[in-house]
């Protein structure tokens, strides 16, 4: 029979056995008994904001997650879309608050609102709401109204990269996973340095298939959705490998070296990747959805790692007034980063069918 003594006695035993640092050592997401009350209300008379779920210390799961992770421990939201926190790999939800992301020629007359920046998590306490454009996930059937941090991440922890969910688990508010969580190594979100070419997430395998849990059509159709042809989960072709390794920006398009060719703005999967590796791709490397997109959001439509609507990276932010995504090359005339893998890339106004792999 469960009563007060059941929990109290167990906590006292663990504190005696493990010392007073039990909670710090167990970790909030690792299932330690002393850590449960960081997120959950244990008794009905405890104070704290209580929303639809009377067991949570937040209005809903995403509000609760952002209570710790908005400006620290990954800083995935921040406070100002013009001054986002340092990039740790996944992108930043603060760009969902932008009023215009369109830096194309029609940016003033055809603004693209911030909801196009990425995944619209429902976190009303932080001004974030469900996607107003897509009823379900693009290329899939997951309800946008259910999108939250716990749709992708298991708040109780597991052995996967960033606690991402996998088969036999359910999204926090509905939906199931058919494909396993990806294999990757992330940066230290507590005290680690921001992302750079020598300090970055090491994507190793499975990312595109994991995205397909909600965006299936972008895998099965090879990204031919909405007239755009691009592979999404395949090994890099020899021509792409050679181009990636040789390309060192618009001013030096063939002066690169494979040993230092890695560009964090255009990552790739490889089982040999480490968080500090700087080598470019090899015959074992693969393209992934995150080669072009951020997982959370970015200061560009479609969560782009660069703005797909501009001719040169120096144009980013000029028309819209939005945060300009940092240019990885010291040249405001730097062409779009499609050129890291491709040659003779058509402009952003060209028919997408003209794009050649």
What keywords describe this structure?
little secondary structure, two-stranded antiparallel sheet, 2 strands, disordered N terminus
Notes on the protein architecture:
There is one protein chain. With 357 residues, the protein is mostly loops. Helices cover 14% and strands 2% of the residues. The longest helix has 15 residues, at 4-18. The termini are far apart.
Q: How many DSSP E strands?
A: 2
Order of strands in the sheet with most strands: 1-2
Amino- and carboxy-terminal Cα gap: 64 Å
Helix and strand sequence? HHHHEEHHH
SSE diagram, text form:
Layout lengths: L3 H15 L3 H5 L34 H9 L79 H4 L30 E3 L16 E4 L1 H5 L5 H4 L17 H9 L111
Antiparallel strand pairs: 1-2
Brief rundown of the structure:
With 357 residues, this protein is low in regular secondary structure. It is built from seven helices and two strands; from the N terminus they run ααααββααα. It is globular, with a radius of gyration of 22 Å.
